[in-house]
Amino acid sequence: MQSSARLPALPRRLCPSPTTAGILLGSDPRHVAVARRWAARSSRARPGLADRISLAASELVTNAQRHSASGGTGGTVRVELLRTRLHLELRVTDNGPRPGHDIDFPRVTDPADPLRIGGHGLRLVESLSMYWDWLGHAGGPLTVRAMFPPS
Fold first, then answer.
1. In principle, which of 19, 21, 50, 58 could form an S-S bond with 45, CB 3.0–4.6 Å?
2. Which top-level group of life is the source organism from (predicted)?
3. Distances in Å between the alpha carbon of 123 and those of 42, 71, 90, 104, 116?
4. Alpha-carbon distance 40 to 37, whole Å?
5. Is the pTM of this model over 0.85?
6. In degrees, to the nearest 5, what angle opens at C-alpha 99 toward C-alphas 14 and 60?
7. Three-state DSSP string of 81-129
8. Angle 42-43-49 from CA coordinates, rounded to 5°
9. Is pLDDT at 126 greater than 70 in this prediction?
10. Domain limits of the chain?
11. pLDDT band for position 1 (50/70/90)?
12. Neighbours of 115 (CB within 10 A)
């Protein structure tokens, strides 16, 4: 008989260090609010900056759930905050593309239709942060990073 090991319930905190904090979220859309609250507290930043970081975390977790395998049953989203003397770095890592879907790398959409519903998340992250980019490869997990000034 095969035993099935149960993983701890999500969301759950990841092992913190003096410079990095992390949380692992699931595919539940309610985890977006958890990410927002966690990022504001974990940033240890002044209120205005903490608000910007938490809003960016919310947008990036939402994108991971909507556009990757992280939004499917058993999907996860890893959120980390790295603190250095020079910046705060928010990292959101998804589970890679959904099976049977085209690989779509993050990009800011064309602003031709500003009244369009949806598709403005990365534009918002771009306006909130000093810089954003992504790391990953075709078919694998993708990490979107957003840099903020030090607190």
1. 50
2. Bacteria
3. 24, 21, 16, 16, 13
4. 5
5. yes
6. 40
7. EEECCCCEEEEEECCCCCCCCCCCCCCCCCCCCCCCCCCCHHHHHHHHC
8. 145
9. yes
10. 14-109+117-148
11. very low
12. 4
